[in-house]
Amino acid sequence: MTQQSVAVAAPRSARTTPRALQRLLKDKIALVMLILLVLIILGAIFAPLLTSFDPYRTSLRNRNVPPGALHLFGTDEQGRDLLARVLFGIRLTLASGFISLFLGGIVGTAIGVCAAYYKRADNILMRAMDTVLSFPAILLGLAIAGISGPGTWSVILALAISTVPPIARVARSSALSVVNQDYLVAARALGLGDPTILRRYVLRNCAPSILVYVTLRFGQVILLGASLSFLGLGAPPPAAELGTMVSQGRALLFTAPHVALVPCFAIFIIVLILNVLGDAARDIFDPKIQQ
Amino acid sequence: MTQAEANPLLRVTRLRTSIATDMGRMVVISDVSFEVGAGRTLCIVGESGCGKSITSLSIMRLLPKPQGRIEAGHVSFLGRDLTALSEREMRQVRGRDISIVFQEPMTALNPVFTIGSQLTEALLAHERCGTAQARARALGALREVGIPDPESRLDAYPHQLSGGQRQRVVIAMALLCRPKLLIADEPTTALDVTVQAQILELFRQLRNSHGMGLILITHDLGVVAEMADDVIVMYAGRVVEAGPVASIFNRPQHPYTIGLLGSLPKVSERQGRLPIVPGTVPNLMALPEGCGFHPRCPLAQRRCAVDLPLLNAVHGDHRAACWLAPLD
Predict the structure, then answer these.
(1) CB-based contact (8 Å) between A22 and chain B?
(2) A2 belongs to a structural domain
(3) Is A100 contained in some domain?
(4) What's the number of domains chain A is made of?
(5) What is the domain-level CATH number for residue A227?
(6) Which residues contact B84 (CB under 8 A, 6 or more apart)?
(7) Which of B60, B65, B112 has the CB atom closest to A189's CB atom?
């Protein structure tokens, strides 16, 4: 009885949210990474305020200037300020990564949850996912760019499509464990319809594992997006895009290594941060890892 | 019994249900027939795996989806054949006309919503009413099942309640729309004896005041004696004995029922070991020929291993599926 009265005294919101926060605070590395990510995102959003340089204005007199006081990260082969270009590039990279993950996440979750709930559709849906999964994402991107022409939206589409199958699999497996729960039969026995059951019962109960997987996936999506634009499928050259910048700087690797290395390093940092955060999110929300 | 015949709330006729397994289709209940009148209580007894729960799931059409199938028979509820309804029509029946309480209270509630949210959801699925009114109804339902401090419980999550309280919430949810028939699948197994008595009293009240029909599935013969008007005894997917409770208890006609009643502990006479019914429930995939009970039956004769006995009237409404009946 004492346990119950304690439970009543502290409602759930006051119990679980701080617990997640507490665990995050305990994980120092994740905390640092989170702060860094927030700084990077803010930097990307307020890029025009942070640097006085125009990422697109060329200056042939200042080509390949190494990092220094005036140009913190140096300039590229057309004399554009690399700091400005990297900030704008991060903007594009994060935005396209987020959009594709969002689209792919919604479609993948819908497919996975439906496959688990409507058992008749399971085989068809999941075999279709296996088919998509059998194409390497890069190849898929090449095909899509071949159809719709290179550009940011082709990259986003390719990333979204390649995100659907793994998310569908995660959604299906976590929905399957919910579908076999007694409360689902109980919900049907109450006369609730499929939309309500899917939304309030299945989706809500498997949302944590899907969200954790999506966070883990973010880094990979960014990396894949950079690879696609490195291959020339992203926004065409003048645009500031991290992968494209690496690809252009590659020619100068021996004369002006910073031109390729600066965007490389930006990609590295972002992917690293996202991976560490994804791991931390899994540790925080996965009930099985709670000590 | 005359009342039940005049006004059958639910009439199940020759129901036969099968489940697909890896080894092929398995008939889990066959030839199950019974009636429940308004305001009456039918108890279904039998050991685990004899088809009691499948019978209730068949009535509600909640069998596991691709595997379970009603092969034959009818479930007539107030004259409507439930087996012929569309899924949408069936949804209207569930929770409003017929409710079911499952035996597993720990997992029968959605863990991510509050009790109040789930209660109002169940109510709003069938009735139009405002949020405040729905909340008041939910509160009343919790009070009815004897949950202490119902106001604060409305905002509690299932994990904050004890097993007994959760089970009472589940029962409150089932009774929310005042169903005409309640199927309770071992509703009181998780509860301690005082709460059990309280819940049974509530069922009895609703039965008397609203004419609610009640199907009580239970192992507990004490509950049967206390609650039932009629009893059916199931064995290996078939009804082996059916009749009014007094008659079943006083003059059991099937050797299995006799065994069940005989294995009840008695306070008056202390014995060393309780008598048991030897053996286990047969594998439904490999049912013995003839009467399903004959390998365990102390009175089995040659005929029992060959021919399947059907339910036959022994005296009055008391029927038994045994070649030896009446056993007096």
Answers:
(1) no
(2) no
(3) yes
(4) 1
(5) 1.10.3720.10
(6) none
(7) B60
DSSP A283: H
Give the residue from B127, B92, B171 showing the smallest Cα distance to A193. Answer: B92
CB atoms B156 and A7 under 8 Å: yes
ipTM: 0.81
Q: Is the backbone peptide bond immediately before B326 cis, with ω within 30 degrees of 0?
A: yes
The residues pairing with B182 across neighbouring beta strands, listed in sequence order, are B99, B214
Kindly give the confidence (pLDDT) of every residue in chain A, 291 residues in length, as a single tens digit, with 9 standing for 90 and above. 334 444 344 444 444 556 667 777 777 888 888 898 899 888 888 877 777 777 777 777 777 777 777 777 777 777 788 888 888 888 888 889 999 999 999 999 999 999 998 888 889 999 999 998 888 888 888 888 788 888 888 889 988 998 999 999 999 999 998 888 888 888 888 888 888 889 888 998 888 889 888 988 898 899 988 888 888 887 777 777 888 888 888 888 888 888 888 889 899 999 999 998 888 888 877 655 554
b (16+ CB within 10 A) / e for A83-109:
bbbbbbbbbbbbebbebbbebbbebbb
CB B236 within 8 A of CB B29: no
**How close A255 gets to chain B, by Cα (Å)?**
59
Residue A135 falls inside a structural domain? yes
Partner residue opposite A186 with nearest CB, options B108, B156, B157: B108
Is B264 in a helix, a strand, or coil? coil
Task: Return the DSSP state at A247.
Answer: H
In this prediction, residues B238-255 reach a mean pLDDT of: 90
In this prediction the pTM is 0.79
What whole-number distance in Å separates Cα of residue B139 and Cα of residue B158?
A: 16
Contact criterion met (CB < 8 Å) for A190 and B111: no
Residue A165 and residue A108 in contact, taking contact as beta carbons nearer than 8 Å: yes
* Residue in chain A nearest B60 by alpha carbon: A189
Give yes or no for residue B277 having a pLDDT over 90. Answer: no
CB contact under 8 A, A12 and B157: yes
CA-to-CA distance for B322 and A131, rounded, in angstroms?
Answer: 58
Residue type for position A249: G
Q: Which residue has the tokens 């019962």?
A: A201
pLDDT for res B4: 44
pLDDT band at B317 (very low <50, low <70, confident <90, very high): confident
Tell me which chain A residue has its CA closest to the CA of residue B166.
A183
Residues of chain B neighbouring A191 (CB-CB closer than 8 A): 91-96, 122, 125-126
Can you state the angle between helices A242-249 and A204-230, rounded to 10 degrees?
A: 30
Amino acid at position A199, single letter: R
Q: How far apart are CA A60 and CA A58, in angstroms?
A: 6
Q: How far is A78 from chain B (nearest CA, A)?
A: 57
Residue A245 lies in a domain: yes
